[in-house]
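Course assignment 3, question 2. Fill in each field.
Student: A.L.
Task: Predict the tertiary structure for the chain below.
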Amino acid sequence: MQIHILASGSTGNSILVEMGDRRLLVDAGISCRRIERGLAAVGMQVGDLDGVLITHEHHDHIKGVPVLVRKHRVPIYARPATWQGMPDGDKIPTECRREIGEKLEFGSLQVVPFPISHDAADPVGYKFYHQNLKWVVATDLGMINRPLAEALAYSDLAVLESNHDLEMLQTGPYPHFLKQRIRGQKGHLSNHEAGYLLARIPKVRCMKVFLAHLSQQNNLPHLAERTVTDVLRSHDCAVGKDIMLYRTYPDRIVSLVR
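Answer field:
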């Protein structure tokens, strides 16, 4: 079992999940070349993938799809509305274009999408089940709601959005309308909200959490970790014991092998 965050941030996102004997890429929001190099760095290649799961159609999650398909004919999985909203999605060859329903099964690995609140056609996060393990990928979260909390509950590992620091966003260079979008119910989760969500959900012992999709303009990895840590401690959660936090980066691979 292993996970490799090839890239995470407002400029591009791609995550490799390996559970059992299956390998899936969640999003391809960086170039095909970067995906190839990232996979090679962890001893894999695109031909080893069982598919690419798309969370939604925004550029930072699908940038590499066209070239990836053209070069490698890898299957791409997305919700029907996501395909409709994807630029040039209708140009993806039929044999590579797959639609996601209630769940997907790849041998003994089960993948279950769940709805999230974001300004896209039909955005989803993903739950991965294999044997007694549950892993979750949940980013681009405008608000904390029941489906999100239930998806994260009792997960052994989660990739969770911690997009922005509220003060940095408020005093930063973004125009007012963009700040309002980010803070809105279909925008992105702040560091404080990520910490609050983690503090409130029921947890397994020593849950592992990657703080992901950080804004390069409105956040810093050490600030996200510190804020989430402070919120967790204020709710009597022992960081390093109850929860292990990991930083992610837009230009550096972060891995965990179990």
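Instructor remarks: The mean pLDDT is 97. The two ends are 5 Å apart (CA to CA).
Grade: pending
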